[in-house]
Write a structure and sequence with these properties.
Number of domains: 1
CATH architecture: 4-Layer Sandwich
Shape: globular
Mean pLDDT: 81
Low-confidence stretches: 1-18, 146-159, 193-197, 277-286
Strand content: 15-25%
Order of helices and strands: HEHEHHEEEEEHHHHEEEEEH
Radius of gyration: 18 Å
Number of strands: 12
CATH topology: Purple Acid Phosphatase, chain A, domain 2
Helix content: 25-40%
Length: 286
């Protein structure tokens, strides 16, 4: 069975790439949890997103390369190479690219405060928006009790998550053949299962509490694959989502306003396709 990306053939990708691009510009973009090195990474769409957007600063908020999965089984194709090359090219052309490692690419944490190919590797840091909001930027895994207290359980959960994603790929092949849009089973389960909802809420509250402790206006994180912007006791909580399920990013415009976008919205704004579902606010199935 071919992966989801494999059904987007190189011919299709080349045809799309020759269309006239109108890059969508932002002051800042945050993406995380791309999980390069896994079949679940929606690499073709991620590459399209990167090639059709520009920003003064691009934050890579952890789990960009999935070292956990690569240790088990090597998976890396040309599109994954192209994504890395595109990030390096952006840095070379003047975009400030900041990589904040997460738990899946934790090996890179040994290089904190170093720069590679113009990409700055940093731990937690504060981003100041155009309208003066101070936003703490971190991956968020240290606020995950499973990661902090029982890493073996995190590995077990990661294996189960991989199985669900494989089933999800098969399901979406059939949905595509039936003319139906992409749908994320794993995201649906997380939003419907009571314990998963409770876990997400505890995580969001803990991250917001850290922002409050550090005296900033808000926090921007990844890790739980749930795109969100909401106020938590006076703290602006932002999660930029992921590139396995929601295909989402957090963006800041020239005025300092923060909002969520997804891959399809960016393709529409760049003139690559027409809109078939509600962008940004409706990233999860009902």
């Amino acid at each position: 069975m071919r992966t989801h990306d494999d059904f987007l053939t190189s011919d299709m990708f080349q045809k799309n790439s020759v269309k006239k691009r109108q890059r969508v510009k932002f002051r800042t973009i945050w993406i995380s949890d791309t999980h390069l090195g896994t079949p679940g990474c929606q690499a073709v769409k991620l590459l399209e997103f990167l090639r059709n957007t520009d920003a003064e600063t691009l934050y890579l908020v952890g789990d960009i390369i999935d070292g956990w999965q690569l240790k088990r089984r090597w998976y890396w194709n040309q599109v994954h190479n192209n994504i890395i090359q595109t990030l390096l090219k952006k840095a070379k052309k003047g975009t400030r690219v900041i990589f904040v490692p997460g738990n899946h690419d934790e090996a890179i944490r040994q290089f904190i405060d170093l720069d590679f190919g113009g990409i700055q590797i940093r731990d937690e840091l504060v981003h100041v928006t155009a309208d003066g909001k101070r936003m703490l930027v971190l991956h968020g895994d240290r606020f995950d009790g499973v990661i902090a207290c029982a890493k073996w359980l995190a590995y077990l959960g990661d294996n189960l998550y991989t199985v669900i994603l494989k089933f999800n790929q098969i399901l979406n092949v059939w949905r595509a053949r039936a003319g139906m849009p992409y749908w994320s089973l794993s995201q649906y389960l997380k939003l419907k299962v009571k314990n998963a909802v409770s876990y997400i809420t505890r995580f969001e509250d803990a991250v917001a509490a850290e922002a409050r402790k550090q005296g900033v206006d808000g926090v921007i994180c990844g890790h739980i694959h749930k795109p969100e912007i909401r106020m938590i006791d006076g703290i602006i909580y932002c999660n930029d989502g992921d590139w396995v399920e929601s295909l989402s990013a957090l963006v800041e415009d020239a005025s300092g306003a923060l909002r969520l976008v997804d891959w399809q919205e960016i393709m529409v704004l760049a003139g690559q396709q027409t809109l078939t579902h509600h962008p940004a606010e409706a990233l999860a199935p009902a």
